[in-house]
Amino acid sequence: MKYNKFNALIYELIIFLCRFYPLKRKPWIRRVLDYCRPDWAAFRAEVAMKDVDKQVDKLHAAWDLEEKEKQKPVYTELEPDGSRAQELLGGEMSKATRARTRARKYKIERERGKRDERNTEGRD
Q1: What is the pLDDT of residues 13-29, one digit of tens each?
Q2: Phi and psi for 76 in degrees, rounded to 5?
Q3: Does the residue 105 lie in any domain?
Q4: Is the dihedral of CA 23, 29, 34, 37 positive or negative?
Q5: Is it the case that residue 36 has pLDDT exceeding 50?
Q6: Counting Cβ atoms within 10 Å, is residue 39 exposed (0-12), middle (13-18) or buried (19+)?
Q7: What is the mean pLDDT of the chain?
Q8: How many CA atoms lie within 13 A of 109 on its CB side?
Q9: Average pLDDT for residues 95-106, to the nearest whole number?
Q10: Are residues 88 and 101 in the same domain?
Q11: Rounded CA gap, 113 and 116, in Å?
Q12: Do 91 and 67 belong to one domain?
């Protein structure tokens, strides 16, 4: 937006001085305020939008970091099922997201007959 910076400054200065002195009663001060108000409004809108842009950039940075943490792969190893190969090499190794990994692990353990030791009391 194009605005006159001098007019915006004059408006700010008069409003500041009006806090201490009763200047708004004077007709020529009212005319100056009426004349400078559009430039002051454009100036204030620009300042507010710059502040909003800074806040948006901070939010995007925080969201990107949060999303990066969520997408981080999780490596899990399931216990061996008793075969000779798995005894030598260890259990099945997999890479997945956190929720999928937990669900798959518990599903395999249920199939093998293991008891689910998670505390689920009080959940509906």
Answers
A1: 999 999 898 888 889 99
A2: -130, 155
A3: yes
A4: negative
A5: yes
A6: buried
A7: 80
A8: 14
A9: 63
A10: yes
A11: 9
A12: no
Number of domains into which the chain is organized: 2
Is 121 inside a domain boundary? no
pLDDT of the residue at 115 = 61
Residues 56 and 83 in one domain: no
pLDDT tens digits, 113-124? 666 565 556 554
CA distance 42 to 3: 6
Same domain (yes/no): 33, 80: no
Residue 116, CA distances (Å) to 50, 75, 79, 98, 103 in order: 54, 21, 14, 18, 12
**Does 48 fall in a domain?**
yes
Structure-token pair, residue 83? 């075969």
**What range defines the domain where residue 92 resides?**
74-111
Residue 101 and residue 90 in one domain: yes
Q: Number of helices and strands (H, E) in the chain? A: 4, 2
